[in-house]
Amino acid sequence: MVPDAASTFSTPRLRAEQLRSDHAEYLAQLHTDAAVMALIGGVRDSDTSAEWLRRNLECWEENGFGQWMLRDTTGQLVGRGGLRWIDPSVGERIVELGYVFQRSAWRAGLATEASNAIIAVARDHYRLTQLGAITLVSNDASSRVLTKCGFRFERMVEHPIGPHRFFRLTL
Question: Which residue segments constitute the domains of the chain, with CATH numbers given?
Answer without folding.
Answer: 13-170 (3.40.630.30)
